[in-house]
Amino acid sequence: MSRPLRHPTRQVGDRPRVTAVDPELTEDGVTFHMTYQGKTHEVQLPRATLVDLSNSDDPALNLLLEYQRHSARIQGVAGRILSARNGDSPIILKSDFFR
């Protein structure tokens, strides 16, 4: 029995493709960029959000390492927000978005 062919332009879950690149440590946390519908958008991840995600109160917390540890979740939330806002940026990810 043959399997049905998938439509070649269909994305998984019918969501637009979103990719994240270039995490960078800033004074306020981590900034990275996501490509959505062919345009690059800035996403800001404040220090407070990363501290909440890591459940740590360590003042010397390595923010880039915490970003990497939680990158799938962070990028998923950022992608959903970009999709909902039709690509408006910058996106500032608050702790409430992860609850």
Compose a concise summary of this entry.
By secondary structure, the chain is α+β, with helices and mostly antiparallel strands. The chain is built from three helices and four strands; from the N terminus they run βββαααβ.
Describe the structure.
The chain has 3 helices and 4 strands. The protein has helices at residues 47-54, 63-69, 71-84, and strands at 18-25, 29-36, 39-46, 91-92. It has a 4-stranded mixed β-sheet with strand order 1-2-3-4. Strand 2 and strand 3 (39-46) form a beta hairpin. The longest helix has 14 residues, at 71-84. The relative contact order is 0.20. Residues 1-14 have low confidence and may be disordered.
Task: Provide the descriptors you would attach to this structure in a database record.
disordered N terminus, 3 helices, 99 residues, four-stranded mixed sheet, alpha+beta
Task: Identify the strand order in the major beta sheet.
Answer: 1-2-3-4
Number of strands: 4
Helix content: 25-40%
Which structural class do the helices and strands define?
alpha+beta
- Whole-number radius of gyration? 16 Å
Approximately how much beta-strand content do the residues carry?
Answer: 25-35%
Sum up the overall morphology in one term.
Answer: globular
Distance between the termini: 45 Å
Largest sheet composition: 4 strands, mixed
Mean pLDDT: 81
Please give the count of helices.
3
String of helices and strands = EEEHHHE
Give the low-pLDDT segments. Answer: 1-14
